[in-house]
Every structure is written in structure tokens, then in C-alpha cells.
Amino acid sequence: MLEENDFILQNKTIKIDKESQQKIVDFFANVKTFEKNIKRPLLIFYDAKSKVFYTECHIYTEELKKFKDEDATIDPDYQEEYRLNRALQPDNPDFITMQEDAKGGRQFSDIVIEYNKDYRENKPLKILGGQHRTKAIEKMSPKHTLHGIRVYFNLNKDQRAEIARISNTNITIADDLLDRMEEQRLDPPNKLRNFVQKIGLLKKGEDFGDRKANKENLPTIRLARTFIVNFYKGKNYKG
After folding, report:
1. DSSP assignment letter at 8
2. pLDDT score of 82
3. Which of 15, 31, 33 is nearest to 23 (CA)?
4. Of residues 184, 173, 185, 171, the one with CA closest to residue 211
5. Helices and strands of the chain, counted as H and E runs
6. Whole-number Å distance between alpha carbons of 135 and 201
């Protein structure tokens, strides 16, 4: 059923069950991926932990908007009305930045999807992870911008929950790490770091800490800036 020229399997010794095979074929036939447009085969991977098949490919904004469903549910048989995704955060600064990036032509990637026509058949791309990126694409992305998607096939309730959980698990980035990244971006380079090394808060070759509590007890960007500001405030103190 899988045409040899349309798909490349991760491992030819792995057998694809008939139902997964049918869904893969249906996806390839009905969704205009970039790979299909340039006559390249889809790569079909097997997740041994969840025991599911998936592909990683690319899709244009207009195609994603046409088929996406942000109201995916873990249990479509008995709990279709209860969506798995959290409520959208329209005022979140990161989401606002995301929309501006989309407007500027940002290509987003690793949007996690289940291809499922069992409910809301006309919207088979069920979003399991990346709903804020998907919404930013919908609102702001030019229609011919390409985005990377990971599409799973033939998930049961437990597999769906596991994939959704992994796709929505983020290790929070500390503000101190973001400060350090921003400092590394600034010109002239190394100015603050060289100063802090010179006065002995950092040893030569050391960098600022990525969080307030770190095992090396390295000072953070915030601490260094506070030190400088307080130094000048102290010089101006007339008490």
C-alpha cells in the first residue's frame, strides 16, 4: 500500500500495521507538504518508546491554517468536548514577540500534530504541541512561509497523552540565562565580563552564572549590574 517512491522507512525490518499505513497514505494524498511538491519522499520514523509512527516534514502557512485543529482532545470517543491544550495566553510577551516574528517571515518548527479524521474530519491536523506558534502562524505568517511539523499516526488514548505531555514539557529558562545571552550579543564584546574578571568577581575564563543559585557560585549579570549601580549611588550619597 505504501508506494516505494513516496516513503522511506527508518528501518525496513519494522512492519507498519495496516491502520497506520492507511493514515500515512491518506495524509500524503490530502495534505500538500513541501516534500510532496518537490517530489521528495516522506521519511517515516518509529518511536520505540510510544510505539508509534510519525514523519517530520514541512508545510506552508496557508495549508496549516486550512487543516489545523487547536481543540484536539486526548479521548475523542468519550470526551471530545474537552481540549487537551491549555488556554491561549494572548497577552504573554513571548507570544506577542512570536507574532511579530511570524509577521517578519519566521519559519517555526517542530509543531507536534496527530493526523486524525475521526472527529472534525475537515480539520485532521490535531495540534498536540506548539499551539502558540500555530496561532502566531495563523494570525501573522505570510501564506507561502514554510514551517516544520512532526505528524503522528494512529495514536490511541495513552499514546496521545504521552506525546502531548512530552511536547508540552519545557524546562523553564531562567531570566539570568536570558540576561547572559543578551550581554553576549552586545557590542563591544566582553566589556562587562572583562570588568568583572578584573575586579575579581569572576576568574579569568569564567562566565556569568545562568541562574542565581548555581553550584559554582558564579555571579550573574544582574548581580554585576547591581554592583555597578550601587557603587555609583554610593559615591553620590550625601548622608
Report:
1. E
2. 47
3. 31
4. 173
5. 9, 7
6. 44
- Residue 65: Cβ-neighbour burial (10 angstroms; 0-12, 13-18, 19+): middle
Residue 183 is assigned to a structural domain of this protein:
yes
Whole-angstrom distance, CA of residue 19 vs CA of residue 37: 25
Q: Could you give the CA distance from residue 131 to residue 60 in angstroms, rounded to a whole number? A: 16
Answer left, alpha or beta for residue 78, where phi above 0 means left and psi between -120 and 50 means alpha: alpha
**Nearest one of 37, 31, 40 to 6, comparing CA atoms:** 40
Q: Please state the domain count of the chain.
A: 2
Question: What number of residues does the chain have?
Answer: 239
CA dist., res. 9 & res. 196, Å (int): 54
Domain coverage including residue 228:
175-235
Same domain, 89 and 159: yes
* Joined grid coordinates for residue 235: 559615591
CA distance 154 to 27: 11
- 188, three cell numbers: 563591544
CB 110 within 8 A of CB 24: no
pLDDT along the chain (239 residues), means of 10: 70 89 94 94 93 96 96 70 66 92 95 94 93 94 96 93 82 79 85 92 90 88 93 85
Count of CA atoms in the C-beta half-sphere (13 A) of 204: 1
In a shared domain, residues 116 and 203 = no
Residue with cell string 508545510: 59
**Rounded Cα–Cα distance for residues 193 and 218 (Å):** 12
DSSP 197: H
Q: What is the amino acid identity at position 99?
A: Q
pTM (2 decimals)? 0.78
